[in-house]
Amino acid sequence: MHRLQDPRRDPREAARLIDPPPLPAAPHPQGGGLAYRGRFAPSPTGPLHFGSLVAAVGSYADARAHGGEWLVRMEDLDRAREVPGAADDILRTLDAFGFEWDGAILYQSRRHDAYAEAIERLRGHGLIYPCGCSRAEIARAGWLGAEGPVYPGTCRTGLASGRRPRALRIHTGDTSIGYRDRVLGDIEQDLAREVGDFVLRRADGIHAYQLAVVVDDAEQGVTQIVRGADLVRSTPRQIYLQQSLGLATPAYAHLPLAVDQAGRKLSKSSAATPVERADPIPALLRAWAFLGQSPLPERAAHPDELWSLAVPLWDLARTPATLALPIHARSRAR
To answer: What is the Cα gyration radius of the chain?
Structure first.
């Protein structure tokens, strides 16, 4: 079991594991509805690189292999980090690589009302409170978790005199979340000790990723989430929000993160060379091999031909059950 929790925790306090919903054995007949709906949700902070391509390939192949739908969503909440033109560039790259998405593209930057409504629902349950702490104050008062200082609940019972509200947080209580990942197996995290009461609306007014992704997945009817393992520690928070909002929990599968030889995520590394739209086949084959899949039975001359060969061979069970894998120079998209 992968335990995303404080090592001081008594193992007898193990959380109940949430089993993923069953996968369809075959495509549903026309008009019968789809039991599988997946998605790919890039952030438009730059062009598509090999690490993002791996997530796109895994999520797309898994959806199509189960006769499901595959949606594309632009996670462009933080406009300050967005690179102008990056969203359109990513969509053109996906198209050139033979990805066919279902329905319209959803842009998070146009969904503020939906996120505000979710916060009001949580407020109605008594789970939301304002926080006046700065990052420096949290670092001094909190303890170190896997993703930085854990918020110690300073403002949980009310703001101190003279303090103004900065962020909005959700009260996690003494909560432990467990779920069964389709790649990594059983995952468990003690929210209170490993994360603390986390932010849902930042001091700059931007709604937090954790809230937005939960609201959007529910709105789009997503049933299966296949994404990079850099988000595996976010999943318990998202499940907690789903439970708090009365939303269904999708199944999760976290693919190994592509890192450089120093162990750095490609988006933060010089290895994050954009994939080449003019020559998609080599990059697609490298991503396919990175995910541990069987070699294609014949050479494909076009992305559509590659997908017709690849989808019937897709087997998520072949994906390495690890959080990260280094890419070699020969594996980089040229």
So the answer is: 20
